[in-house]
Write a structure and sequence with these properties.
Length: 132
């Protein structure tokens, strides 16, 4: 069975993959739906990485608010991400199955910055051996 830190490293590494895909979509003017989906996935996996590192079993959910609620108990500073991540629930499902009509390249670029800030914050909280 994997330790919490091993699981955290896996989640953090997969979050890096998702960020790379989102960045590539933006850099090459690819459809925004996949970029949005991968930004949501990166945020989700980053939160699950920190939960795992703290030996808290990450629930099977795409709900970032639920994950934040669990993690804010030990890391209240992550509460600053509640508002910036509030629209990401739309990205988890709607970007895969519905048309994202109200999303612009500028919005997705702003959301990329949010996830990059989240990554910096979480990486600073992760023990070194749990970082990708």
């Amino acid at each position: 069975m994997k330790s919490g830190r091993d699981t955290a490293r896996l989640f953090a590494a997969r979050a890096e993959d998702d960020l790379l895909v989102a960045e590539a979509c933006l850099a090459h003017s690819l459809p925004l739906g996949p970029a949005c989906f991968h930004l949501q996935q990166a945020a989700e996996k980053l939160l699950k990485a920190l939960l795992s590192a703290d030996e808290i079993r990450a629930p099977w959910t795409h709900n970032l608010w639920e994950l934040l609620a669990l993690i804010e108990v030990k890391h209240p500073e992550l509460g600053l991400f509640r508002t910036p991540l509030s629209g990401f629930g739309l990205y988890a499902v709607d970007s895969r199955y519905d048309e994202l009509t109200d999303v612009s390249v500028e919005m997705v670029r702003d959301d990329l910055v949010v996830v990059q800030r989240l990554r910096e914050t979480i990486h600073a909280l992760l023990p070194p051996e749990a970082r990708p």
